[in-house]
Specification:
The protein is of the alpha+beta class. The chain has a three-stranded mixed beta sheet with strand order 1-2-3.
Length: 82
């Protein structure tokens, strides 16, 4: 299988796989409410959105995403109560 190239037609499949891996890792982590976090990937850039309980959960979710295979960078769109 050819490697995914950003912007190439085949990268959509790679992005879907990255999204699935990040979402599965979030759901498996007991410190993160994975069901409350939306994950989207485009050209290896993962966007996280949703509500988290605080800074610790936000940091953990971003860390999980950053350390998932295939992730080039993470955009943090998570919100926590003040």
């Amino acid at each position: 299988m050819a490697p995914d190239i950003p912007g190439a037609a085949g990268s959509t499949v790679g992005d879907a796989a990255v999204t699935a891996r990040v979402k599965a890792a979030l759901l498996a982590d007991p410190l993160v409410s994975g069901m409350a976090i939306d994950v989207d990937t485009r050209d290896g850039v993962v966007s996280l959105a949703g509500k988290v309980s605080g800074a610790a959960e936000r940091n953990r979710a971003v860390d999980i995403a950053r350390n998932t295979d295939g992730v080039r960078s993470v955009t943090d769109g998570l919100s926590a109560p003040n």
